Amino acid sequence: MIDTWLLATLCLLLLTAGALIRVLWTKTRYDRYVAALVAVTAAGAAGLCLSIALGTLIALDLTVILALIFYSVILALISFSWGEST
Questions:
Q1: How far is CA 1 from the centre of its chain?
Q2: What is the domain extent for residue 24?
């Protein structure tokens, strides 16, 4: 039988993949930033579901660390390119 948390993880990873495709194929810079933030958020939720499904805290720790790194990079890119035209 399929575990509910693993199914939720797979669904969230599918949403993350869709957001990453949106990052690559969209035209404006700000749509890319929003899609990247959505991808990181969905991946973080998938990591949380995976840690619950596996019963380990290492998956949750890695998820939090990677999410913080990616959020910081995205926010740095936004603040760096704020004055540039689209």
A1: 28
A2: 4-80
- pTM for this one? 0.85
39-70 confidence digits (pLDDT tens): 999 999 999 999 999 999 999 999 999 999 99
Number of domains comprising the chain:
1
Residue 69 to residue 74: CA distance in whole angstroms? 9
What are 55's two structure tokens? 């019963």
d(CA 18, CA 22): 6
Whether 85 is covered by a domain: the verdict is no
CB of 26 within 8 A of CB of 67? no
Tokens of 81: 């390119």
Helical segments of the chain, H only = 4-25, 29-54, 58-80
Position 29 in a domain: yes
DSSP 85: -
